[in-house]
Specification:
It is built from 21 helices and 11 strands. The chain is of the alpha+beta class. Among the domains are: 6-200, Orthogonal Bundle (Arc Repressor Mutant, subunit A); 290-448, Orthogonal Bundle (Regulator of G-protein Signalling 4, domain 2), CATH 1.10.167.10; 523-563 and 581-629, Ribbon (Cystine Knot Cytokines, subunit B), CATH 2.10.90.10. It starts with 20 loop residues before the first helix and ends in an 8-residue tail after the last strand. Residues 242-251 have a biased composition (Low complexity). Residues 213-257, 475-496 are annotated as: Disordered.
């Protein structure tokens, strides 16, 4: 089967080859105490209907033994420790691929020491292929492949297509050897081998405990190399070398070196650090917030006039009124308001109503200075100083003394960034006070509701104009392959003739009707994919939000009847005829439905339950289309 690490088979064993060996030894000491004949966990053979389950014990037995013999008072702590040991493969559930400990009657079995992780197993994909292939040769329910194992077998078969015959021969030879073993022994060995591969090829979503930290591995290979870290140089190698090789004596540090270390540690204390989990969480929240405004992910509404015939965007721009999405975006942060021209105007109008617009006007004036030609900057800097910061200024702003003193020095040599400190101070004041009041104000809420009405006020005339254009086109002479209009008229008819009843035009055949339908109606199908947020929850667990998609649109359908079949007599003189047999009609019924669907597994944290997590499967829609469905019953309603 799999091969052990040949590097670790020296006289000292493998203890020096794995950085996790200390953890393995501690777990193996606990396992040895569990297997003690007197004070260990009772192992028994359970009888079930027409079968026996040999050498098993329950999960509650493990929890009770840990509480009694390991001085553990909390049951949750005992379950956590047992789950860690099960994840490393020291004992395993006999009927589940997920290696966790449950405090119930689930049966578990100890792993043989041959398969312990302390032996530094490094199984290859060919070994895994032989194992899976052998499982398929044994027609037993307990040896059937799980879904993820079947996918792995198919992937390995494609990867090793050239030597698959050799792999199959190995699997066949191992299966013959297994058949010669005793039934109980074979059952135990099969479960232990399955648990071994559950550790080294875990179920998707489970932690792989055999992965080695690359930093620990590098440190083991170079024990005498001085380690460098963000906390400064560390010259004491004896703290890192597993072989405890004595290091050369370090020279006493000089006064200058000590002073440099003090300066370095002081800088490290002031250094700002962020956890990677917090950074990832912030990035996900930002992506979910702006996904509605990303045209590559979410179709724009109204659509882009350069790639469609919809000119609603130009109508909105001409009216100088922001759309609902644009107003809604102002609530994301003050930066969204300040970089939008209409947002700045509305914000300034709100501050003027509260007689506190000088801060925003100062901020805008400083931004405008940065874009002016260099020859106009000194004059404009003096104007801003006289208006906002000089003693007796008509629109004086409130800045702290530190920013004021620095700005005073900068104005003596005016430049584009003379007011940088004062501008930053004013920006913080607006962000913490003025902006929050603007978002909560009734003026912003009324503006947000007014945009909903304004959108329909602008788009409704456009839609009516489109309907009139379509109606005008239908009154033109019908070309070949188009649907006849019931309002068709000729230009040389008098008013009296137009008022007379007219016969509708008749198509020549059902085939022509089919062509007409496909050209005019089916090509007008539309089906859109729209993102939405869904909450995945379960009792006792913390809910999570995922981004899914839903389908909506208008898909057309049609029904064209066919001719009846020929009739025939049963025989001479019978006087009775068979019923006419109808041919299948031309019909199609389309729905806006998912075209591509994937399945997403979401892990929910459940602090008060055991285990402390749950998996929920969510159907995620990738793309929607108008898709025809089979209509049975020969068109009968």
């Amino acid at each position: 089967m799999a091969q052990t690490n040949s590097v670790g088979q020296g006289s000292n064993g493998v203890a020096d080859e794995s950085p996790n060996m200390i953890v393995y030894r501690k777990m193996e000491d606990v396992i040895a105490r569990m297997q003690d004949e007197k004070n260990g966990i009772p192992i028994r053979t359970v009888k079930s209907f027409l079968s026996k389950i040999p050498s098993v014990f329950s999960g509650s037995d493990i929890v009770q033994w840990m509480i009694k013999n390991l001085n553990i008072e909390d049951q949750v702590e005992a379950l956590h420790l047992g789950t860690l040991m099960a994840a490393h493969g020291y004992f395993f559930p006999i009927s589940d691929h997920v290696l966790t400990l449950k405090d119930d009657g689930t049966f578990y079995r100890f792993q043989t020491p041959y398969f312990w992780p302390s032996n530094c197993w490094e199984p290859e994909n060919t070994d895994y292929a032989v194992y899976l292939c052998k499982r398929t040769m044994q027609n037993k329910a307990r040896l059937e492949l799980a879904d993820y194992e079947a996918e792995s077998l198919a992937r390995l078969q494609r990867a090793f297509a050239r030597k698959w015959e050799f792999i199959f021969m190995q699997a066949e030879a191992q299966a013959k050897v297994d058949k010669k073993r005793d039934k109980i022994e074979r059952k135990i060995l099969d479960s232990q081998e399955r648990a071994f591969w559950d550790v080294h090829r875990p179920v998707p979503g489970c932690v792989n405990t055999t992965e080695v930290d690359i930093k620990k591995s590098s440190r083991m290979k170079n024990p005498h190399k001085t380690r460098k870290s963000v906390y400064g140089p560390q010259n004491d190698v004896r703290n890192h070398s597993p072989t405890h090789t004595p290091a050369p004596e370090a020279k006493p540090a000089t006064e200058e070196e000590l002073q440099d270390q003090i300066t370095y540690w002081g800088g490290q204390l002031d250094r700002h650090r962020l956890k990677m989990s917090k950074v990832a969480e912030s990035l996900l929240a930002y992506t979910e917030q702006y996904v509605e405004y990303d045209p590559f992910i979410t179709p724009t509404d109204p659509s882009n006039p350069w790639i469609s015939d919809d000119t609603t965007v130009w109508e909105l721009e001409a009216s100088k009124e922001p759309g609902q999405q644009r107003v809604k975006r102002w609530a994301f942060g003050i930066n969204e308001v300040l970089k939008d021209q209409v947002g700045r105007e509305q914000f300034l109008k709100f501050l003027e109503s509260e007689f506190s617009s000088e801060n925003l006007r100062f901020w805008l004036a400083v931004q405008e200075v940065k874009k002016r030609p260099i020859r106009e900057v000194p004059t404009r800097v003096q104007e801003i100083w006289q208006e906002f910061l000089a003693s007796g200024a008509p629109s004086a702003i409130n800045v702290d003394s530190k920013s004021y003193d620095k700005t005073t020095q900068n104005v003596k040599d005016p430049g584009r960034y003379a007011f940088e400190d004062a501008q930053d101070h004013i920006f913080k004041l607006m962000k913490s006070d003025s902006y929050s009041r603007f978002i909560r104000s009734s003026a912003y809420q009324e503006l947000l509701q007014a945009k909903k009405k304004m959108f329909w006020r602008i788009t409704l005339p456009v839609l009516l104009a489109g309907v009139l254009c379509v109606a005008t086109e239908t009154r033109k002479p019908r070309p070949q392959g188009s649907i006849p209009s019931p309002f068709k008229t000729k230009g040389n008819l008098s008013d009296r003739q137009r008022l007379l009843p007219r016969k509708p035009e008749v198509l020549s055949s059902s085939r022509e009707a089919l062509v007409v339908t496909e050209r005019r109606y089916l090509r007008r199908d539309w089906c859109k994919t729209q993102p939405l947020r869904q909450t995945v929850s379960e009792d006792g667990c913390q809910s999570r939000t995922v981004v899914n998609r839903f389908c909506y649109g208008q898909c057309n359908s049609f029904y064209i009847p066919r001719l009846m079949g020929p009739s025939s007599n049963r025989g001479p003189g019978s006087g009775r005829k068979n019923h006419n047999k109808a041919q299948e009609p031309f019909q199609s019924c389309s729905f806006c439905r998912p075209h591509r669907v994937t399945q997403l597994t979401v892990q929910l944290d459940c602090p008060g339950l055991q285990p402390t997590f749950r998996h929920r499967k969510v159907q995620r829609v990738k793309q929607c289309r108008c898709m025809s469905v089979d209509v049975s019953g020969n068109g009968k309603l």
